[in-house]
Amino acid sequence: MKDFLPFVRPSIAPQTRHGVSEVLASGWITSGPQVEAFEAELGTYLGNRPVLSFCHATGALEESLRALGIGPGDEVIVPAMTFAATLNVVFRVGARPVLVDVDFATRNLDVERVKAALNERTRVIMPVHFAGLAVDLDPLYQLAEQNQLRIVEDAAHAIGAYYRGRRIGSFGDIVCFSFHANKNLTTIEGGAVSTRDEVILEKLRRLRFHGQKKLEDGSYDILMPASKYNLSDVNARIGRDQLAVLESRNSRRRALADLYFEGLADLAGSGDLSLPARGDTGHAWHMFAVCIPYAERSTSRREIREALAARGVGTGVHYPALHQLTVAREMGITAGEFPNSERIGCETLTLPLFPEMQDQDVARVVDALTGVLHGRP
Ligand SMILES: Cc1ncc(COP(=O)(O)O)c(C=O)c1O
Questions:
Q1: Which domains occur in the chain, in start order?
Q2: Of 42-51, 205-214, 331-340, which gets the smallest average pLDDT?
Q3: In whole numbers, what is the pLDDT of the chain averaged over residues?
Q4: Which of 182, 116, 212 is closest to 318 using CA atoms?
Q5: Single pTM value for the model
Q6: Is 132 in the pocket of ligand 1 (CB under 6 A)?
Q7: Is residue 231 within 8 Å of 177, Cβ to Cβ?
């Protein structure tokens, strides 16, 4: 068998290893000059917006809600199709997540579905730019303004994505990125918040580090109970190199996605699978996931995945719908039906996509998938 093609592989340039070695040898390895530089460079990339780094997006999202004063009695709108972090952070601050179904093709929230879920307890909308495809934000921000709501964008998949020509995170209320190992820009684990809201920034600065305020005499005070979500200099050093090549890597992702659309057109045309929404050139293509009606074909996702793995092709599952998770049921999320999210959760299959893939790797995946779905040996 040819080399196994995983569904994702982080791209770490050789010079990054050298850069990390320098930081390790520098005598300062936790938050310091590299974090400062990374935040400044990211801020420049995001149109000169203030940026605060975190050790993960989960912390960035949770503290953003906390900084907004969200807690018991408040409701937060969350798409029913997203990673569990988007849901968990709402539980963690004691608020109630209100799930809203997504569009089947875009996997994203739309304003009409959100509108139907609003009530007097709604405080925040948390749209997720699923797989790097920007949510249609203009109508959502309009709705938020009309109803005095805040928006915390879960942009975990969307570093380098564009909405109507504007970079995600270069505008908008509070925008949270993830730099987890699988993301378009990785710091191994990491995250960031971009916002122009000075009050929120000040709170986030404290919330990410023990609630600490430095005093003039070199001592400090602790202003509030808080956690510890700072990024280390080692991680930030990786992020600086990753940011420098983000645009070219995202271009490569777009080219690979184009090849998938060409290669999978016949399977989509014959109803063997559904392709994701293509979006425009602003799609960051964090993932490329198709939906396959396993039950109709009298097979299962597991069987298809095993057959693909036997042909050297790795796949992923992103994600089960939130309302199907035990945590959602046990926390009382029983209301509502989310047919699109449920179908995506049952049918989705993430195919390999990472910038170092060659064109022929896409051809190999298409060939393997065609063979598996058409029962070829
Ligand atoms: C949509 C979404 N939100 C939040 C997160 C959490 O990111 P992190 O792992 O950086 O905490 C992820 C991680 O994959 C995600 O996919």
A1: 14-244 (3.40.640.10), 246-373 (3.90.1150.10)
A2: 331-340
A3: 97
A4: 182
A5: 0.97
A6: no
A7: no
